[in-house]
């Protein structure tokens, strides 16, 4: 199943959309210009849609003109950017200071727009295709909000699929796996309370920085000594805040970080062990702790039947050797997980690496590979046509 010429011929048009979106990155749940851009395109093509989900989210739909089936399929793209300053110098670099499309959501949105345009012009299928333009994936839970606001009650979507560009795969390759593909994401804060004083008289203090140092080292052993080595899990301390002067030992230090896991029981154990470890170490040094643990995204779990279906579509498109069906799960997180908790479907990596696109996601020199656009659109279109066959 080669790339359809009519889709390949859209590459310049789609690249223009993508680069226009790259110029106007917006943080989660504030994608007002991005949402407006998408709505203008949908309206110009005569595609019905409803906006306002999770503030800036959009659900569009196209009913095929062949038969009267109630079957339906959902395709999802994320729209938000990251709070990063871009270091690229090309013409389409970010015009919003401190914001950047460093994860390729501009490309995901453009691929979904391309699929919508093509399927509107070629609607010889029996059923309904839903196009979900989701805000706030980068830590804001836009997917959860859209589910809670009832998109699956309002729209009868049988199965749901999403693509994410993956710089670790070469352009034209696909990666997916049945079961967990992205981890559960949680965040924690440990507030360490000691007794401050003069830095030259530490004997009169209960130094919270010393306590914090011991806690940081100790919680790293939770994964290696309390979790089965076969399981995938991690703890990363990412922030330390404490102290105001060179000669003052402060009363308080805050440690923050993230944990990743795939199973509920592992998630529970990590939370318990971090709290227990921090409390016991603080007590040894006559200090105290306050613990906050925030459960963010659940693990992204691909359903078996739909993953096999998507893999077969990808194989027909790019060849079996370019489709990795048992790719290793990522410790990254995804709020597409909330949608997969409600509907069967799958989350698919699509490669974008070539000689000009080697930067990883969430780096300041990253840019989406526009040569990926027709591949992604062709996959979506093929998926829809096979689904309704």
User: For the residues shown, what is the average pLDDT?
Assistant: 97
Fraction of residues in helix: 25-40%
Shape: elongated
Strand order of the largest sheet: 1-2-4-3-5-16-6-15
* Percent in strands: 25-35%
Structural class: alpha/beta
SSE order, as H and E?
HHHEEEHEHHEEEEEHHEEEHEEHEHEH
Write the layout of secondary structure elements.
Elements: H1 5-8, H2 11-23, H3 32-44, E1 48-53, E2 57-63, E3 72-78, H4 105-121, E4 128-134, H5 142-148, H6 151-154, E5 159-170, E6 174-175, E7 179-182, E8 184-193, E9 197-198, H7 208-219, H8 221-226, E10 234-242, E11 248-249, E12 252-261, H9 264-284, E13 288-297, E14 300-302, H10 304-318, E15 323-324, H11 336-342, E16 345-353, H12 373-388
Parallel strand pairs: 3-4, 3-5, 5-16, 6-15
Antiparallel strand pairs: 1-2, 2-4, 6-16, 7-14, 8-12, 8-13, 9-11, 10-12
Helix pairs in contact: 2-4, 4-12, 7-9, 10-12
């Amino acid at each position: 199943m080669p790339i359809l010429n009519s889709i390949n011929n859209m590459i310049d048009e789609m690249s223009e959309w993508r680069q226009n979106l790259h110029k106007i990155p917006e943080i989660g749940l504030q994608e007002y210009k991005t949402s407006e851009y998408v709505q203008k395109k949908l309206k110009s093509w005569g595609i019905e849609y409803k906006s306002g989900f999770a503030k800036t989210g959009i659900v569009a739909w196209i009913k095929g003109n062949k038969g009267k089936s109630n079957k339906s399929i959902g395709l999802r793209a994320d729209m938000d950017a990251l709070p990063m300053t871009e270091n690229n110098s090309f013409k389409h670099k970010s015009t919003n200071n401190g914001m950047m499309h460093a994860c390729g959501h501009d490309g995901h949105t453009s691929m979904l727009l391309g699929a919508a345009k093509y399927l509107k012009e070629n609607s010889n299928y029996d059923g309904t295709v839903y196009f979900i333009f989701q805000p706030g994936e980068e830590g804001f839970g836009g997917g959860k909000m859209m589910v809670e606001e009832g998109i699956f009650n309002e729209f009868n979507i049988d199965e749901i699929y999403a693509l994410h560009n993956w710089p670790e795969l070469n352009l034209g390759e696909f990666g997916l796996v049945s079961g967990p593909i992205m981890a559960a994401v949680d965040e924690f804060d440990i507030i360490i309370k000691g007794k401050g004083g003069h830095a030259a008289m530490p004997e009169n203090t209960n130094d919270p920085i010393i306590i914090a140092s011991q806690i940081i080292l100790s919680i790293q052993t939770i994964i290696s000594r309390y979790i089965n080595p076969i399981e995938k899990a991690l703890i990363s301390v990412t922030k330390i805040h404490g102290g105001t002067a060179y000669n003052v030992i402060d009363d308080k230090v805050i440690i923050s970080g993230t944990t990743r896991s795939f199973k509920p029981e592992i998630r529970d154990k990590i939370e318990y062990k971090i709290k227990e470890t921090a409390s016991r170490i603080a007590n040894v040094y006559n200090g105290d702790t306050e613990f906050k643990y925030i459960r963010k995204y659940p693990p992204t779990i691909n359903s078996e039947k739909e993953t096999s279906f998507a893999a077969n579509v990808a194989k027909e498109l790019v060849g079996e050797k370019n489709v990795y069906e048992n790719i290793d799960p990522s410790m990254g997180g995804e709020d597409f997980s909330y949608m997969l908790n409600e509907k069967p479907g799958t989350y698919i990596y699509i490669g974008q690496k070539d000689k000009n696109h080697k930067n990883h996601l969430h780096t300041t020199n990253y840019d989406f590979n526009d040569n990926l656009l027709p591949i992604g659109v062709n996959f979506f279109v093929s998926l829809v046509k096979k689904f309704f066959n």
